[in-house]
Amino acid sequence: MTGIANWTRDLDLDLGLAEIRDCFDEHWTLRALAGASVGVDPEDAFSGASELSEAVNGLMAGFAQAKPALATILGGRGNDYQRCLWYILAGRDPLGTAVDLGRLVEMLERRCALAREAAVAGTGVAVAQDPYVTDEVDGPLGVFSADFTLGRQWRPFAHSL
């Protein structure tokens, strides 16, 4: 095999996430987000973090559909990864939350692109063991109304919500 895909052979897709997770110079919430993403399927991680980031950005912009979107994410079956990401950030500064999620999404997008390229080339990649051992809900699933109250830290951003 020749060409650009050759370098993807047995590439460790989680190396970048682990590097951020272990870097004491990074903000602790970004480190926690990266650590929570190690081992998660590349497509699932990217789409889940992107969807959550979109909801958070919508909250900051005051979009009415953002609260129902977040409620759906938090109450959805099989959304343990997204709930994990949200609860790492819940109660924190909205701008920092949006920035950290945005950086995570960028990392996961590159990770996903590498996985896709390796799949096309048939070279295979290394990914840590998926931390989610079941597709079933692990514990009680909450019911989240779209009419929830955001903390006062969101008021400058979500004044119309």
What does this structure look like?
This protein has 161 residues and is mainly α. The protein is 53% helix and 2% strand. It is built from 6 helices and 2 strands, in the order E-H-H-H-H-H-H-E. The chain has helices spanning 15-21, 28-37, 42-61, 66-75, 80-89, 94-121, and strands at 11-12, 125-126. The protein has a two-stranded parallel ribbon. It is globular and about 50 Å long. 28% of the residues are buried. The model has no long low-confidence stretch (mean pLDDT 86).
Which percent bin holds the helix content? 40-55%
**Average pLDDT rating:** 86
Number of strands: 2
The residue ranges in which pLDDT falls below 50 over 5 or more consecutive positions are none
Strand/helix succession: EHHHHHHE
> What structural class is derived from the secondary structure elements?
mainly alpha
Radius of gyration: 17 Å
Measured by DSSP, the beta-strand proportion falls in under 5%
Largest sheet: 2 strands, parallel
What general outline do the C-alpha atoms trace?
Answer: globular
Blueprint (SSEs and pairs):
Elements: E1 11-12, H1 15-21, H2 28-37, H3 42-61, H4 66-75, H5 80-89, H6 94-121, E2 125-126
Parallel strand pairs: 1-2
Question: How would you summarize this macromolecular structure in one to three sentences?
Answer:
The chain has 161 residues and is an all-alpha fold. Helix content is 53%, strand content 2%.
Comma- or semicolon-separated keywords:
161 residues, globular, single chain
